[in-house]
């Protein structure tokens, strides 16, 4: 009714309402002609049937628009609810170590524009690539596939710490196929994205851990790679074991025992720094860590081997 009232003010008056100005006699030809002019004008501007039809169409258009908005909002809510449901399933499978099932679930939505889905798909692709039963050819395809998903996640949401983290991880993996020059050049970009991930979420232990790995990697860079880096770049990337150790401890403080590899690397870093007592402490924790994934099992084996060789030397 409010709509009808607003429309009424802008419509012409009906016959019998306050009259408009009269034309002088004889103006615009004969009287009959002038009458016909007034009649045509009335049909267009003042006919009650025409007015009612116009009002009805306006009301229907308004109601149609309102209905469209309700349906559109419902579709958005439904889509959001569906994404939430997929994410819950994905996180459950990830926590359960169901790597291949997780990948199969998420690849159904590889055309998604949702950053939350895309970075999880990058992670799942990479995890399948890391499986021992994955062939070298398949691994390479999955590594590049993971990078593409991570890149899209970052494009969709540059403020998401996980998008930065997984883009850096996947870019690092690609370096294994593109040579030492590309690997060193990418190192600067990788570091920036890890630092951004930590800035966006300082409570994410894995981002801190990965920054530690970056430092550890460049602290133990072989001399020939360092020489190449010096030839290619004025200031090649470099770091120290002390910096790596600081990040590994910081990650452990944020989330104790969150990742078997962080325990292993604490042990290995202490070995590099010739602190055998603390090295043994952290390697023992890595060896005894409950194995939920294939990676955990590999870490258990490596930690046990290091402890054995460590004991034999003593």
TrEMBL record:
<dbReference type="InterPro" id="IPR011990">
    <property type="entry name" value="TPR-like_helical_dom_sf"/>
</dbReference>
<comment type="similarity">
    <text>Belongs to the RMDN family.</text>
</comment>
<dbReference type="GO" id="GO:0097431">
    <property type="term" value="C:mitotic spindle pole"/>
</dbReference>
<keyword id="KW-0206">Cytoskeleton</keyword>
<dbReference type="Pfam" id="PF21033">
    <property type="entry name" value="RMD1-3"/>
</dbReference>
<protein>
    <recommendedName>
        <fullName>Regulator of microtubule dynamics protein 1</fullName>
    </recommendedName>
</protein>
<dbReference type="GO" id="GO:0008017">
    <property type="term" value="F:microtubule binding"/>
</dbReference>
<dbReference type="GO" id="GO:0005876">
    <property type="term" value="C:spindle microtubule"/>
</dbReference>
<dbReference type="GO" id="GO:0005739">
    <property type="term" value="C:mitochondrion"/>
</dbReference>
<comment type="subunit">
    <text>Interacts with microtubules.</text>
</comment>
<dbReference type="InterPro" id="IPR049039">
    <property type="entry name" value="RMD1-3_a_helical_rpt"/>
</dbReference>
<keyword id="KW-0493">Microtubule</keyword>
<keyword id="KW-0677">Repeat</keyword>
<keyword id="KW-0963">Cytoplasm</keyword>
<keyword id="KW-0802">TPR repeat</keyword>
